[in-house]
Amino acid sequence: MNSVYYDYFLEQLEKVLNIPSISGDYEKIQEYIREEVSKYNYKFISFNKGGCLVELGGESNPIVINAHADTLGLMVKNINNDGTIQITNIGRLPEYAVENANIKIKTYKNKVYTGTIRRKWSCIHVTPLELRNEAASYTGNLCLQLDEDVNCYQDVINLGIGCGDIINIDNKFQVTNSGHIKSYFLDNKVNIALVITLMKYYYEQLKDKIERKVYIHISMHEEVMHGGACGIPDDAAEILSLDVSCVCENQNSNEHAVSICMADSRFPYNRDMIKQLINVAERKNINYRRDIFIPTYGTDADIALLAGYDLKHALIGPGVVGTHSYERTHYEGIKNTFDLLIGYLEN
Fold first, then answer.
1. Distance of alpha carbon 5 from alpha carbon 175, whole angstroms
2. Contacts for 166 with CB less than 8 Å, ≥ 6 apart
3. If you average pLDDT over residues 30-58, what whole number do you get?
4. C-alpha span between 135 and 141 (Å, rounded)
5. Any alpha helices (H) in 102-184, and if so which ranges?
6. DSSP single-letter state for residue 136
7. Quick one: what percent of the chain has pLDDT higher than 70?
8. Alpha carbon of 303 to those of 22, 47, 93, 261: distances in Å?
9. What is the pLDDT of residue 208?
10. Mean local confidence (pLDDT), 281-305
């Protein structure tokens, strides 16, 4: 990935991060992707439940490149008597990740209100000592405080807010001088930006150079574990998921590298694809790591196999710190992921 395509990637990343797309709330992000596809006249198919398939070109040995556009989020559970709101999570969004986050609520009539996730006892000076060190809890000490003059249940109802309304967390997107990228929901907007960049790169650099048939499958329900269950073309032989890799203690992944996943919480990935990916990385001097993600990691590629598709499956992605929280990666991890993806398609 040269500087021109990296700059384009960053531009796309900021755009898709600013389009809320909690699992199931897919209309705006899907329309944005459709608009990007239309620039290159690729074939675009939408799924009934949300998600899409883009056919780039080629004829032989079909492969599906998969990435999910949905993110974690929150939902209104109940409205409390004092006008605060009880929240619940969509996907595995831990409580510690959202405490003191700024948010936007979207009602079913598409009104938007702002607020903050706080503890019910929010002032340390007067919080009883036994409550100060309690772990944050959706069912206990966390609540949502609206930026509105509300003092009771009915005040909130009068705004049109109710059970089931979607709550989006502000992403706090930053790019540092050292090349780090920080934001909520790099999982998996970072790879949506990469596949949009792939569409541009393929059109400008690859369409007359490779014979392999390439599909892009974008799901809107990966975080709730059914994104890959539909929409895989009948002629596909392989699926390569792009998702974030976990950088922390006892893991091999690194922010500066692309990870090739050997296994996750469901089962091992296909050894033939892994061998080919490793061969490409070593031949092209791409910084890569082999890693295993357990106990709760999974991908759309897993779900495609569980749905009965006859596919070889593999997973690659940039190393990311703080997954399912405020996340961070690095330019080099993005570059290495893109270079491995292109190298595999050309292989």
1. 16
2. 20, 22, 25, 73, 74, 75, 90, 105, 106
3. 97
4. 8
5. 129-132, 153-158
6. P
7. 100
8. 19, 16, 20, 16
9. 85
10. 98
Q: Span 214-243, mean pLDDT?
A: 97
Cα–Cα distance measured from residue 116 to residue 128, given in angstroms and rounded to the nearest whole number: 22
Determine which helix (DSSP H) or strand (DSSP E) holds 31, and give its type and residue range: helix 27-38
Active site residues: 222
Q: What is the mean pLDDT of residues 150-167?
A: 97
Cα dihedral angle (314, 320, 325, 326), rounded to 10 degrees? -150
Evaluate if residue 45 carries a pLDDT over 90: yes
**Arithmetic mean of pLDDT over the chain:** 96
The pair of three-digit structure tokens given for residue 159, joined into one six-digit string? 């705004």
Phi, psi of 205 (to 5 degrees): -125, -25
Lowest mean pLDDT among 59-63, 98-102, 129-133, 155-159: 129-133
Of 31, 41, 38, 39, nearest to 218 by C-alpha is 31
Pick from 146, 142, 190, 186: nearest CA to 165: 146
pTM to 2 decimal places = 0.96
User: Among 323, 213, 341, which residue's Cα sits nearest to residue 280?
Assistant: 341
283-319 in b/e form (b: 16+ CB < 10 A) is ebebbbbebbbeeebbbbbbbbbeeebebbbbbbbbb
Q: Distances in Å between the alpha carbon of 246 and those of 124, 252, 291?
A: 34, 8, 9
Please give the single-letter amino acid code of residue 185: F
* Residues 237/62, Cβ–Cβ less than 8 Å: yes
Q: What is the 3-state secondary structure (H, E, C) of 174-187?
A: EECCCCEEEEECHH
CA distance 272 to 40: 32
Neighbours of 258 (CB within 10 A): 28
